[in-house]
Design a protein that fits this description.
Blueprint: E1 3-7, H1 15-29, E2 36-42, E3 49-52, E4 59-63, H2 68-86, H3 97-117
Parallel strand pairs: 1-2, 2-4
Antiparallel strand pairs: 3-4
Helix pairs in contact: 1-2, 2-3
């Protein structure tokens, strides 16, 4: 089970949708290495989202202006990064392109499967 703290949620964002897509990704990624994170929404014009890993309080920040599909895909993408860090496969400040390649591939697979089931 994963627990997340939600910060700065835009009014138009449905919490049950967030719960649903996060639990889907948790199961899909076998994300048992992480049991808590902070999901924050922020005004960003140049990014969809990013992940800052910390053993105790990892933070995923998502642009507050994304439409629902882009928001779901971005959450999946950043949860892949959380899994990379949490499993110890990726170290802090490791900018090898392989991590983005993996995140983009998995975000697409998860988005397709998730949106087919919704």
């Amino acid at each position: 089970m994963i627990i997340y703290e939600l910060l700065n949620k835009p009014k138009r964002v449905n919490v049950s949708l967030l719960d649903s897509c996060i639990l889907f990704a948790y199961d899909y990624l076998k994300l048992s290495c992480v049991d808590f994170f902070i999901l924050d929404f922020a005004e960003m014009s140049d990014l969809y989202g990013y992940c800052i890993y910390d053993d105790e309080e990892p933070v995923i920040t998502i642009s507050d202006s994304l439409d629902q599909q882009d928001m779901i895909t971005t959450i999946f993408h950043e949860l892949v990064h959380l899994a990379q860090y949490g499993s110890g496969r990726r170290k802090e400040l490791d900018c090898d392109p392989i991590w983005e390649i993996e995140a983009y591939a998995l975000e697409q697979k998860m988005s397709k499967l998730y949106l087919e089931g919704v």
